[in-house]
């Protein structure tokens, strides 16, 4: 029995009690949840449904809890129900019902953990959005890992997701990049406001042309292709590479100004055109068109948001760097000025900085990129799996320090190794079973009754809830931390419950039941790692 199935059973029992008492069934929550109690001695799962129903039914919660408990005890899947405190239900499953979860996991396979928490949402997920004037650096890399993992988790929770990279291919930065390339090709000093690093010379040497414009345009395309190659190597694929130029060349900026003007939020002042964003908590109004007729970068921001909404996205999620805190208010104000709900249609996440260490000492600056560490250099140093897992396992709200030696060490205190090793250990066990001509056969769930077996089942049952919560809170690190707990639970199970027979021992129903349980654990570890874009190795 899965937690969702048990929750439905609890709701049905509550419905039976309310009906028997002539109470209004409309007070029942649309859905209810069950949770694992902190103290395992309190039972397998707990429910507060009696507390939820007490006030609307004007019934003492313990009285309701007692009646619901009696209804639940009539179910074969329920071993016992205790009432705690003011009316909490502590539920123990029968051995057969608990073991049935292993069949569910193995049967669903790669689909186990998927749900409907975000069903019906069409999400535009914009992340990385690095300027095409240099390699993807360490700060971008954190959002590459987190953003791609979020996309996977959103889809597992039922959403439609478009992963989008916004390319700033218009404006002053690209002009500076073109001048830097032009100077490098002629072995001239880097312009005062230009870009340095060996990569500039590398790209300049690949360009054929005479003018700064040639170097700007060819250099931009070469740099963009390099960025795409680096991100694909990191297992990050974008559905859309959106060009800022397209907004200006296709009339989207003028269209956005028209939309905002019709909504009554445009005003003229000092010869310039402004958007009155202070009506929606922004700290100041924003210029859209300067007095000289030049459109601002903010005008492109407005056009880009409106373009997203007109492409059918009902939720636009921006993943921005630590230096973009000021964008939160202005982007939400854009949504409000466009007639949208800034609490529903737009969301901005800020990722804090990443520092790279080796043996406790800061890693020196990149030779190739000058003042930064690049994504490719990180992958060369630690590999894709270690980099992605380490970047995704911590909340983006906090700065992150990665030590190259620590995240590549093959030891239990290295989280990515610990989780991958659990999967490899299970894969080895299953290979051994195959070599011994032992298959799972028919699952007899009543065989699963050992404390450590039940602990493992409870951990496996939590996976769908963890995925749903990670999707709703935009926190992929919850999946990583869950996998580490699951790996620990599996190792404890393995140390206490021998799976394969030794010597001349017979293959029993218990052997087969434990093989089902082991396979279920392997599937959940693999599914969780896949959500983080990390491989699940069969050998280590």
Notable characteristics:
3-stranded antiparallel beta sheet; alpha/beta; 20 helices; 540 residues; 5-stranded parallel beta sheet; flat
In short:
The chain is α/β, with parallel strands linked by helices. The protein is 49% helix and 12% strand.
Shape: flat
Radius of gyration: 28 Å
Give the % helix. 40-55%
Average pLDDT taken over every residue: 94
Strand content: 5-15%
SSE arrangement:
Elements: H1 3-20, E1 45-47, H2 49-57, H3 61-72, E2 78-84, E3 88-93, H4 95-108, E4 122-126, H5 138-156, E5 160-167, H6 172-185, H7 198-204, H8 212-233, E6 240-243, H9 244-249, H10 252-262, E7 266-269, E8 272-275, E9 286-289, H11 297-310, E10 315-320, H12 327-337, E11 346-350, E12 354-358, E13 361-362, H13 375-382, H14 384-392, E14 400-403, H15 404-408, H16 415-435, H17 451-461, H18 463-473, H19 477-496, H20 509-531
Helix pairs in contact: 1-3, 2-3, 4-17, 4-20, 5-14, 5-18, 6-7, 6-8, 10-11, 13-14, 16-19, 16-20, 17-19, 17-20, 18-19, 19-20
Report on this model:
The protein is α/β, with parallel strands linked by helices. 49% of the residues lie in helices and 12% in strands. It has helices at residues 3-20, 49-57, 61-72, 95-108, 138-156, 172-185, 198-204, 212-233, 244-249, 252-262, 297-310, 327-337, 375-382, 384-392, 404-408, 415-435, 451-461, 463-473, 477-496, 509-531, and strands at residues 45-47, 78-84, 88-93, 122-126, 160-167, 240-243, 266-269, 272-275, 286-289, 315-320, 346-350, 354-358, 361-362, 400-403. Strand 7 and strand 8 form a beta hairpin. The two termini are 33 Å apart. The mean pLDDT is 94.
